[in-house]
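lol ok so funny story. i was supposed to be doing the assay writeup but got distracted and ended up predicting the structure for this chain instead. priorities right. anyway since i did it might as well share w the group, maybe its usefull for someone
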Amino acid sequence: MVVISIMTLLTGVFLFQQRQFDSTTLLRSLSYSVALSVRQAQTYGSSVRGFSGVFAEAHGIHFSSGDLTHYFLFSDTDNDRVFDSGTEIVETFGLVGNNFTISQFCATTNSDTERCYPGELTSLTILFIRPNSDACFETSNSPTACVVGDGGEDYKEARIQLSAPGGVTRSVIVTPTGQISVEGVGS
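and the output, tada:
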């Protein structure tokens, strides 16, 4: 009986650890998928890429608090440098499984003020305007920041935080120079 109890306990611990390992591995993969989606928008934005017969000067990725399990790659077909949800979506990306979410997205101002969802923001757009590979950030607080002469708030970094069950998180960081990185945040 003692041996069976010990074996049951060890099996339970092993299964719990395996589930947590699987979740962490999937989250890492998901984080790199989001980073690759941003890189895809950057590639489209720095080249001549047409969709539906229109050659847009800008492409981007859009995150919204209205749907924290999907994000959108879009082509700015009307060249207003603003995401239009009904007409410009090129591809919709969904997070793997029901338990993974975009738990936070933030933009850091040049004065080091971080504006985030949840909180002040309801959307974040990372825009790449041809011919540069530089990123421009628009938020619900400054929805036309990438429009020339807008005078909106300038941001020095965007961060998208993804969460897995158990509280494990990873972040995708994008800088105005177009650098994209994935960082582990916590577990």
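The two ends are 36 Å apart (CA to CA). The chain has one helix and twelve strands.
back to the writeup now i swear
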